[in-house]
């Protein structure tokens, strides 16, 4: 029987905070804090073919080039650590994460692949190893290998700048898609070198977010997320942004968050707020009135059933045509 391994990785729901921050040496680093989301994810199966060349790797779907690069890197790493000769193999990927919305679909594929290759060698890689290989495979990655822990993560370096705490404050998130859910080409976005004032502003938000996590303050977290989203508007320029922030104020939400590299967004609620179900329903009605498709209502804490109303799942082709983007039906399932 051929050595076979499996791996899984989750997605996220865009960022709570993203910007340029200072590391412990005072050096500027691009960094982000993602909003974890359970449910959608990528699954990988890797079947080793001993005796074949290490570069003899195939993938299904065939165009997952980043995942194939990750598989090649992981094979070399695992072979060196176990003393076994590197070889080729077949990678199979399945999943239900929409692409182009800023939910970490490519990173999820890559992490699931690294875990599957390692599993085929009888290994379980550390998060640091997975992050290092993921950055090499796709130049930047999301902190999905850390399984939802709130961290400030240097996505281009694959390292944690700060662990903010054990868990985010409890939140109820009404997800939606801006721009009709059209994918965002991050490579075409304008790039502006941040100045000292920009970095000071991001560092202030970092301090506030640290306090929000330490005190489980959902309202303070919402303020940070909204401020970060507004800063992101300088680049993304979503025409629905002002409507989204007006909705959050009208229905008594604590803030909004937007993927800084995609179209997914969320209206954030404190689950302890009075009349929560009424607020969430009002939010869904307001989104519909503004033509903003609702996707999924979910929480950042465990729940036991359909405790909140939700919008219809946003349906579209998951993988738009082009390199590394095979089409497959996808949705964001409702809670």
Structural write-up:
A 4-stranded mixed beta sheet has the order 1-2-4-3. A 4-stranded antiparallel beta sheet has the order 8-9-7-10. A two-stranded antiparallel sheet has the order 5-6. By secondary structure, the chain is an alpha+beta fold. β1 and β2 form a beta hairpin. It is built from 7 helices and 12 strands. It starts with a strand and ends in a 5-residue tail after the last strand. Helix content is 33%, strand content 26%. The chain has helices spanning 65-82, 105-120, 127-138, 196-215, 218-236, 241-250, 276-289; strands at residues 4-22, 28-49, 57-60, 88-95, 151-154, 159-163, 172-177, 255-258, 264-269, 294-299, 316-317, 329-330. The longest helix has 20 residues, at 196-215.
Concise synopsis of the structure shown:
With 335 residues, the protein is of the alpha+beta class. The chain contains seven helices and twelve strands.
Structure characteristics:
335 residues, alpha+beta, four-stranded antiparallel β-sheet
How does the SSE layout of this entry go?
Elements: E1 4-22, E2 28-49, E3 57-60, H1 65-82, E4 88-95, H2 105-120, H3 127-138, E5 151-154, E6 159-163, E7 172-177, H4 196-215, H5 218-236, H6 241-250, E8 255-258, E9 264-269, H7 276-289, E10 294-299, E11 316-317, E12 329-330
Parallel strand pairs: 3-4
Antiparallel strand pairs: 1-2, 2-4, 5-6, 7-9, 7-10, 8-9, 11-12
Helix pairs in contact: 1-2, 1-3, 2-3, 4-5
Structural class designation? alpha+beta
Helix content: 25-40%
Number of strands: 12
Anisotropy-based shape:
globular
The amount of beta strand, in percent, is 25-35%
Number of helices: 7
Mean pLDDT: 88
Spatial order of the strands forming the largest sheet: 1-2-4-3
